[in-house]
Fold this protein.
Amino acid sequence: MQEISAYTNYIEREIARLDFPLKPSNLYDPLRYFMQLGGKRMRPILTLLGAELFGEQKENAINAALSVETFHNFSLIHDDIMDEAPLRRNQATVHEKWNQNIAILSGDVLFVKAFQLLAKHDSKHLSHLLDLFNKTAIEVCEGQQMDMDFETRTDVSIAEYIEMIRLKTSVLLGCALEMGAIIANATENDKRHLYEFGQNIGIAFQIQDDILDLYADPEKFGKQVGGDVISNKKTLLNLKALELASTQQLEDLKELAIEKDHSKKIIETTQIYNEIKAKEACEAVMQDYYEKAITALNAIEIDQNQKIPLQQLAQYLMQREN
Amino acid sequence: MQEISAYTNYIEREIARLDFPLKPSNLYDPLRYFMQLGGKRMRPILTLLGAELFGEQKENAINAALSVETFHNFSLIHDDIMDEAPLRRNQATVHEKWNQNIAILSGDVLFVKAFQLLAKHDSKHLSHLLDLFNKTAIEVCEGQQMDMDFETRTDVSIAEYIEMIRLKTSVLLGCALEMGAIIANATENDKRHLYEFGQNIGIAFQIQDDILDLYADPEKFGKQVGGDVISNKKTLLNLKALELASTQQLEDLKELAIEKDHSKKIIETTQIYNEIKAKEACEAVMQDYYEKAITALNAIEIDQNQKIPLQQLAQYLMQREN
């Protein structure tokens, strides 16, 4: 495996070449702006690695990779409107920098752009790529709707929460990998295993996100630690705590939910979570999905050495501190 | 040609079979609701007629037809948010009946559904259908952005206005027809002529819309006559009037733009438009595009009798009273 930065740089160069028209400027300026905000570019890298895993050159998977990244950015632009988020990667969101109508419409155009990139693939693969992509795009929307529905519900189960993050986040990682495998003409079984690997790594990744939000080193995290606690967001940490709490701890958590002093709220919530060992409970779930992912990767019928890049990437994602 | 109602009924039956999932209900209930609101179903009918023109059975073009109608409905859901429209076909819009976030997200899902329907076509046609569809979808978004940009501009030219309605409305009619022709394996030249027919009929249709908004028979129109005048919307009628008005008439129109009494505003604006002969000027432009459309239809190298349904449809669209 080349250094991960070699893949990131390749993706960034290709994104810079996407070539949006100049006019109408209110439609395309936001896209030029948003696509250049950066990020880990994890999804397109997965597509390239998925292709290389089966001996295909990464250049032959670049359009599918860009398609996934473009779709991801479209969904972020629309999610930011729905979440009323002012910032994305520490920069103003599209609806903040321009306005909401422009964010809706430029998001829509970016979505079409994802299909245009996909349509560059030859007809041998196009139908399979499109079927997977469509199914995934719908699931991502379903996950986002579930997430919004959860905001006003008090009875969200852990199973429902896992299903929500599976749809909202993880299926796109599975899709990104499988697209590479489709282009590389992998077998049905191998494609399925690779998708499973991606989906389970995605769930583990999202659980780690929940843990990091409260337990990250503030020096390394890059955003406010405890943001989810302040906003009473339902996360696995929160749901596990509610599941394991004593009657007294439940009472205390209920009171903390309406605590106005953010610093006090974070400190005392963390204290209760620590007593309950909520973090350890989440880590156990995360480890479980990580192992499912590795099992799926092992099941792919290909030289084990070929799998090293994906194993390394999985470890890197699990050990991250932000 | 079968009666137009036979086509409409066929489309309605197929739309009823679209089969959206039950959950998440906040995502799919709005789609069941909106897709059943009705309308002329003009676009999918064009796809079926485009296929039949070249001897293909309409059943073989139904998925592309539904794809176009689904895309059209997606764009209406998002446009209604942007226009803050409370009503669509005399029923509450999605963002009014549910909320804005649900309207954004269920619109997004409907957009994917359009691609899923398209992806049902075999790989022989899929790539061509997708290229045309993507190009058209982007143009429709560009047209909507131009329309929004026009709201705050005072220097919109007639050429720009025509370009806006071409993108926002007409290219989708051309696309709908050409999709049918693609499925029927028409020649490149014939596909281009059919697209031109659709695009020019679309422009004529939209100009007629502008005229009807002020000059329709209130008994037959089904919505408030003069709505565009009340809201100072830029239409061809309005732009032609400004182009042809004397200095005094310009002054009067400027004053009428801020008139609060709607009835007075409509009556006096109409009086000035009549003096200017703005309606006749628009009709001349409309006739020009209608003739361009017929010329394009005539250029298609196929038995003239085959073209009768499209000629009839074009006449029907030009003679409508609502």
Summary: The mean pLDDT of chain A is 95.
